[in-house]
Amino acid sequence: MLESLTTELVVSGFFSHASNEDSSDLQAEFAAGKIWSMYDERLGRFFLADAEDLAEYGIKSFLDEVESYLRKHGVTKLDVTEDGYDDGNYYNVTVNGELFKIWDAANGEESWGKASFATFNIINTLLKQAGSSERVYAYNGGNDLGFIFLTDFQHRLLMQFPEAKTNPHEMPYVMVDNGSGYGIAERPSIKRPSFIKRYVKWLPLLIIVAIAKYYLYTTHHNEMRAAPRNLPQVLNKLQVDVSNIESMYTLKLGDDFTVIRTQLADTPQSLTWVITENGNTVLERGADKELSYRYYRLQKGAAYTVHLKAFFNNSYHIVSNTISFTP
Question: Is the distance from CB of 289 to CB of 303 less than 8 angstroms?
Fold first, then answer.
C-alpha cells in the first residue's frame, strides 16, 4: 500500500520540486510511511509562515518568499501593496489591484487567524486565476503555521497514508474563515474515566490503610497519655538505629557527572543532596523527589564530593556513601 501510494505521488509530480538526489531519498521515506517529510524543505513545497508575523503586516513579505513557486505555476503578475502600518488600527493588502481587508479595530483580537486565512485566500485566488491545478493548504497554526502546495489529487493521496489517519491534526487542511480553529482538525481528546471509576478499584486498599492509620494513632496516643514513667519507652520506639545508617543509600557517578541514588520504599524525612567544592559546601538540595542530580555550576579542575543526609533522632545524619570527582 505504501509503495503504491508513493508511486502515485511520483506520477503526480509531487517530488518534482526536489533535486534528483533529494527526490530519491524522499520517495524512500514516503514508501516507509514517513509522510512528515512533506514538510521537509528538500521537497520544495512547504513554507513556514507564522501567523503572528503575517498579522503584523507581514503578508507581503511572505508572498515575496513564495513568488518564485507561484511563477512556476502560472502566476505571471504579483503586485502587492500594504496599508495600515502607520495607523496601527487596521491592515489591508492589495494584490494585483484587488483589495483584501485583513483585520481592523473591530476584529483585531482575531488578527492572527484573519491574517492566516487572508494569506491562504490570496494565494489560492492567484493560483485559480492562473489556471493552476495546485492550491495551498495550511499546516498547524499560530507561530507554527505553515503552507504547503498540493493538487487536490495529491492531498487525497496523502490522506490515505496510515499516519494521516492516526494523526489527522498534523495533516494539511483547508482553511475557513470561521474564527474557531480556521479549519484545523481538532486534536483527539483523551477520554478519562469518571472519578468513581478511577478510584473504586482502590477503595478496599484505602479502607485498610485508613484502619491501620487509626490503629497506629490511637496506640501511640494512648501511650503518650500514660504516666511519665512510660515516656522513655515510647521515645525508644520512635528512635532510629543509626549505627549503620551510612549504607542506607548507594550513590553512583554517571558519565556526565550526574550522581544517581538508589531508591527505598520509604523515603526518610528531609532527604538532602549535599555537594562540596574544594572542601566547601556549595549546595544543599532536597532529594526526596529526585533519583539523580547534576550540579549546574561544575568548574573544570575543582574537587567535588556528593553525599546524602536525612533527619533522624532530632538531628541530621549522613545516609549514603560519598562520591568524589573532578571534572
Answer: no
Please determine, looking at this structure, whether the domain spanning 247-325 carries the CATH number 3.90.1150.10: no
**What is the rounded distance in angstroms from the CA atom of residue 104 to the CA atom of residue 50?**
19
- C-alpha cell of residue 64: 515575496
pTM check: above 0.85: no
Cα-trace Rg, the chain: 33
Domain edges within the chain: 2-76+108-183, 247-325
Q: Which one-letter amino acid corresponds to residue 294?
A: R
What is the SS3 assignment for 148-196?
Answer: EEEEHHHHHHHCCCHHHHHCHHHCCECCCCCCCHHHCCCCCCCCCCCHH
The DSSP bridge partners found for residue 151 are 134
For 324, the 3-state DSSP assignment is strand
**Among candidates 170, 140, 135, which has minimal Cα distance to 151?**
135
- Span of 168-172, 232-236, 259-263, 286-290 with lowest mean pLDDT: 232-236
Dist. CA 222–CA 282, nearest whole Å: 45
